[in-house]
Structures are given as structure tokens and as C-alpha cells.
């Protein structure tokens, strides 16, 4: 740290935090006798807390966001320059950075055409849900309104996105949830639901979606919302044959395909800009947030095809036919200004290629830990988005307890490495360690992360 804050300043900050700040996903009872962690500064992959302790951040800001790392002066300057010129105007009008980023983004997304700006991943997903529902009314008399979602996927924290969430613990105590959302089975072969493997398993998992459609009635199902790689539900990469069959099913029953790239988007999975592009998917909607501007400004996007856009553009006498929606902070210009510079950095520094290489190293290192520690039951991932599932018994795949997973995370933290883990999401299966360092990660960074995990597993499990 550069010492900008002295001990007295930090003491006041901590007191104010304890007295007034309501932290996300946090039980505050322990703060009656202990201080919350305050992150004071960040540079590259490193952050420093209020005690001056340095940490290697292996989860890009805690929630897969800071894709190009901390301390990027060029992004801060781009935001400053834009704010001085125009900070905000409602998105009912255009802006220079909004138009420029939309053009650049669409250039990375062949087949897509229109960008609807909003301020969070949850809200971007809500926009897609609303579009699907309005299309149901415009074209199908309101009948084709149901939206399918997948077990273990996550799409946000609002009531509607929780209704479309496959993580039951996240929805506990928040019901009744919104009607019209229907679950389909997950596609995790490690937790196989059918006695099949490889492409046979992938196609069977997709066929299970068709079974739900038929049970609900194809004339009632308007959309299917899936993550290309399941994130917080356990870093689940799709088995071969899965996506090809899913897409075939959507076309067969005239179901709009909504891909949630809030975590996977903008380089996280390597090689391609978006996770869906690894699998030849041609979506109707793509939603994104987090890495779009690497956390330097709030921005999220709901991107659609021109065909979807055209459904809301007509000369009908009904004045209600257009998409009657607004997102207040979708009009902030800082987001697209930051996103433009964020994308330039990814291009100029070849971070897609680095992500592919360092992701392969991460998987290799985690596979080495699997050979050394029997508690590691499975390793999976795509690019710098990796997971290791911990089990008490490899033969039965009995998961370790969530408390033990927390111990591993705490032991890594004690070594100055911040890792993630699935928690309070999937009942009985919150047993996956999650890794998503910034796309600038080096081989030494990857080795330091997995080295800390090695030590932690030894300390917790022997």
C-alpha cells in the first residue's frame, strides 16, 4: 500500500463500516466482536486490506469481475474524460460511448445486432425475460410465456431471476416466487443422472429438456435461459453433444434461446470473447455484466438479434407494442466508456490467448493436486474459470461438508491467496473450490494459487 490512509483514518473507516454498511452475502453477528475486512487498494492481481496484508486475488474482485486487473489508469482516465464531457442522459437518447461500444461489441458477436444497456447482470436477465413475455403476448396471445432454466444455474438476485435460479438455497425464505419459470435438469456428468458418458450423456441431458417441454406443452414455452458454463453452481462445463442438441430442440419448438454470459463473457473462458462461442451456439439473447468493464464502472447489456428487435418495431395501431422499459443507470456514460477501454486492453495485450494458456496451466496444476489429494474428486473448467470438487469418498462421490470447504478457503486466505467456493447455493453440494483470476495472470500467479490450495488441503484433510 502507498500509505495514503494512516491508522486513525482506517480506524474511523472500520467504525463507520461496522455502524452503517450492510455487506452482501454476509452474516453480521460476528462483527460485534471482530472487524470486517476492508480492501484498501489493488494493483494487478494483488489487493491490500486494512492491516496492510497483501493478497493474490484468484477470484477477480470476489465475484468474477475485474478481468483486466486492478489499477488500470487508462480506464480510469477514459471514465474521467467522459464524465467531464457528459455523465448521464436517459437511454431514450443516445450517447457517443454508448454507440461506439455497441458497435464494437456487436463486431465480436456475429449474428447478434442490438444492445440494450442496463446496470447489472440480474437486470439484464430481467430485460430478456420481459422481452420473451411481451413476445408471447404480441404473437401467441400470451400463452407461450413460460421460461425454462437449468438446475444449478444462477441468473441473479431479484425475485424474477431467483424464480429462474437453479440454486435452491439462494431462494430460501424469499418466496413466493414468480410463476411461469420451469426447471430442467443439470448437465454435470460427474453427478450423472443417467448411466451414460461423453456425447451420449450430453445428448441425454439435452433430451431431458425436451421432456420438460413436452410435459409443459410446447405451445406454452417461450424461452430457455442457460449459462454456457455453469458458474456458482459448481463450474460445470457442458458435455460434448449437449449444446448441439439443445439448439436443435429450441428450433424444433420455436423457443427463444437466452445465454447468460454475466460470468463467462468478455474473455473469461479464453480463445473467444464469449463462452457460447466455443459451442457453435446461435442465441436469440445474450446477457452480460461483470467483466464488460472489469468493475471500473457499472454496465450490463442485454444483446439481441435483429429478428428479436424487429418484433418490437412495427406500425401497429396499438401504442403498447414497443418495449416499454427503462433502466435508469443504463444512461450512465461511464460504463460504455470504461468498456471500450477494457476491450482495447484485452485486444492489445492478447489476453484471450493468455487466458487460454493460463487456464490450461490451472487445470494441469489442479489435476496434479487431484493425484496428490484424494479429497479432490473432479477438476473442470474453461479458460481462467476453473473448479475443483471436493469429496469425502471418491468411490461414492460423497461431498465434503460446506464447513470443510470454508476451512480450505480460510487456509488459503491465511497464506495471502483469496479463492472462491460454492456456498449456500445447492443443498448438500456446496463443495466446489472456484478459481477465476484476472486474465492477466502469469504462470507464477497460477502456481502460487494452486500451491496455496495444496497447503490448505494438507492442513484441512491431512
TrEMBL record:
InterPro entries reported for this sequence: Aminotrans_3 (IPR005814), Aminotrans_3_PPA_site (IPR049704), PyrdxlP-dep_Trfase (IPR015424), PyrdxlP-dep_Trfase_major (IPR015421), PyrdxlP-dep_Trfase_small (IPR015422)
Pfam families attached to this UniProt entry? Aminotran_3 (PF00202)
Q: Name one GO molecular function term.
A: pyridoxal phosphate binding
Look up the record and name the cofactor or cofactors this protein needs: pyridoxal 5'-phosphate
Q: Does the keyword Transferase apply?
A: yes
Gene3D superfamilies to which the protein is assigned, alphabetical: Aspartate Aminotransferase, domain 1 (3.90.1150.10), Type I PLP-dependent aspartate aminotransferase-like (Major domain) (3.40.640.10)
Family, as annotated: Belongs to the class-III pyridoxal-phosphate-dependent aminotransferase family.
Q: What name appears for this protein in its UniProt entry?
A: Taurine-pyruvate aminotransferase
The species is: Salinihabitans flavidus
